[in-house]
Specification:
Blueprint: H1 3-14, E1 24-32, E2 36-44, E3 50-58, E4 63-69, E5 76-82, H2 86-102, E6 107-114, H3 119-132, E7 137-142, H4 149-158, E8 167-170, E9 175-176, H5 179-187, E10 200-204, H6 206-213, H7 220-224, E11 231-237
Parallel strand pairs: 5-6, 5-8, 6-7, 9-11
Antiparallel strand pairs: 1-2, 2-3, 3-4, 10-11
Helix pairs in contact: 2-3
């Protein structure tokens, strides 16, 4: 069965005039050779209501399993280990700003910073905080050991003081991600059951690309479409 048939079956299963085929946004599937294929399809209707439909196709016609609303009210806690690399952090903030504007009340940034002082970090972060009145953040300073990503991630996760457990996104400072990726972070993890583990790929040096194509690549979406020439150090969640 092709994916179009699976989508049609999902719309039929929801069985409401609120849903149409063009409300399908994206989905995932997992094929088990001896059993069949498991699908999770996400829909977003004109009223901004989200619904996920789970289906299973054994070696026979597809079988709808369940449908339920997707909870987008949880907080997303971004945990970032950092040691120096202030210029890279400035670049991170440039892209993070776009995400923050759209989901300001649902995103939290935890930075675990290694060094004797975090003044250099504060010099660039405090103007950002003031500009956006961004209070949903926490900086943990580590002075008694060398940089350790594993230690930082563990410390950052345990530093959470909220009443409810958030969705945790473990992030390096040279990771750039889109709003669509954040939506997936909020959609696919299941507490005590499943994590969302995306694929990392390398972006290509925009200075080389701009010379090659003789044009300015200003939008992140334009850069993400390019898969030619040399690798760059910035990595992306896709």
């Amino acid at each position: 069965m092709c994916i179009d048939e699976v989508i049609d079956e999902a719309v039929t299963f929801i069985n409401s005039t609120k849903w149409r085929r063009d409300h399908f946004t994206e989905g995932i599937y997992h094929t088990m050779p001896t059993l069949g294929t498991h699908y999770e399809l996400n829909f977003l209707n004109d009223s901004n209501h989200r619904e996920r439909v789970t289906l299973f196709r054994p070696e026979m016609p597809v079988i709808p399993l369940k449908s339920h609303p997707v909870d987008f009210s949880e907080k997303l806690n971004i945990v970032m280990p950092l040691s120096g690399r202030i210029d890279t952090f400035v670049l991170f903030l440039t892209h993070f700003e776009e995400i923050l504007i759209k989901m300001k009340n649902r995103i939290f940034l935890t930075i675990v910073y290694f060094g004797k002082s975090m003044q250099d970090l504060l010099n660039v972060f405090q103007p950002f905080i003031a500009k956006h009145r961004f209070r949903s953040h926490h900086i943990q300073l580590v002075t008694d050991r060398n940089f350790s990503r594993a230690y930082a991630l563990d410390l950052g996760i345990k530093s959470w003081k909220g009443k409810q457990d958030p969705i945790v996104f473990l992030c390096d400072v040279d990771i750039i991600f889109s709003q669509e990726f954040v939506d997936r972070c909020m959609t696919y993890p299941q507490k005590k059951s499943r994590v969302y583990y995306p694929i990392v790929f390398s972006l290509y040096n925009p200075k080389v690309l701009e010379a090659y194509f003789n044009q300015k690549l200003t939008k992140l979406s334009d850069k993400l479409k390019i898969r030619l020439l040399e690798h760059w150090r910035i990595r992306h969640w896709h």
